[in-house]
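Hallway conversation turned thread

IA: we were arguing at lunch whether anyone had actually written out glutaminase end to end. Turns out nobody had. So, for the record, here is the sequence (401 residues) and right after it the structure tokens. Reply here if something looks off.
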Amino acid sequence: MTPFCMQSVSKPFTYAIAVEELGADEVHHYVGQEPSGRLFNDICLDYNSRPHNPLINAGAIVIASLIRQKQCFSDRFDFTMQQYKRFAAQGFVGFNNAVFLSERETADRNYALSYYMREHKCFPPNAKLQETLDFYFQLCSIETNADTLAVMGATLANGGVCPLNGDRVVCNRACRDVLSLMYSCGMYDYSGQFAFRVGLPAKSGVSGDMIIVVPNVMAICIYSPRLDSLGNTVRGVKFAEALVECFNFHNYDSLVYSEVCKIDPRRKLHEVEHEQIVHLLFAAKSGDITAVKRHILLGADVDQPDYDGRTALHVAASEGHAKIVRFLLKRWKASPDPKDRYVHSFHLLSFLPNCVLVFRWGRTPLDDARHFKHTDCIKLLEDATHDLTNATLEETGKESE
């Protein structure tokens, strides 16, 4: 897959890291939240003598000055790279030194902008201008690919939690603020038109990359280097407009009373719950205790049965995975001897009355462990049943007294 430099698409992630580190109030003491209405590298400030927002050059340079101010230059960059990799679930995040040197050599505008901001006291105390600019150029020179950048965007769509590994990278407040700014300021001078036509948070870069975030659903990365006069990828913008023509992803599309037959691809809640159960049962069958833990952390109900009434405890006991049985029993909310669905017999077809299927169901996890002679699982389940019986007898005795 073709690698490319993130350029301005790095700015939302750097801003999110700064908000997570310092808090929104501290960050916005130095940077505003308004669309500038000017070119992205224009030498101007808002009425409070601050950069208009963190997604233009002035704001991004100030944000760079805020991250880990007391650390040395190399440690600050290393910290930010590690945070980017957390956004990407440890996917490909590299650095292009040639682009960094090129950025440095052609940075007259950014130097002028930085000196202008220093004159207006936009930087935090003791900020080193040259180090700050080099750090900013490094962030623009971070390299990735479309798959990885889509995962990074999906972490923003998922409220700051990476959807691939469940790692909380930044808080929900930081994500909310990032997406708000991407919606109003993310597409250079086309931001207003993009918000009107597409109605989704997005950010583009001059390398031809672009991310589109559908909050609570997904993120899309597009890489197409041909740019329009405003610095946005031509195909990326056209794709985004076609996307909301086909699907009801526009921020203000009615999900109920739409005159246009747009597709709603969002999964319903019960579909998500059923999928969680399936994933949990497959993890229990394969003996992958890490996956079992992950699915439970993501909200899977530990004692929820499938359509046959079989639970993860049934499956783990049948396969002889004692570690998973022990883990499930510690989190089991109900009786540890649930029965799967029992059907004594039924006629296969109404026109074949003599064809009868007999199901050997109605078994507990302990029955399955005994049937397959998994002694470790038998011991664990017998102990759990015994403990439950004793606890029930004690409660009955207390009530009778």
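OS: looked through it. The CA atoms of residues 204 and 210 lie 4 Å apart.
IA: good, adding that to the notes. Residues 4-246 form a domain with the Beta-lactamase fold (CATH 3.40.710.10).
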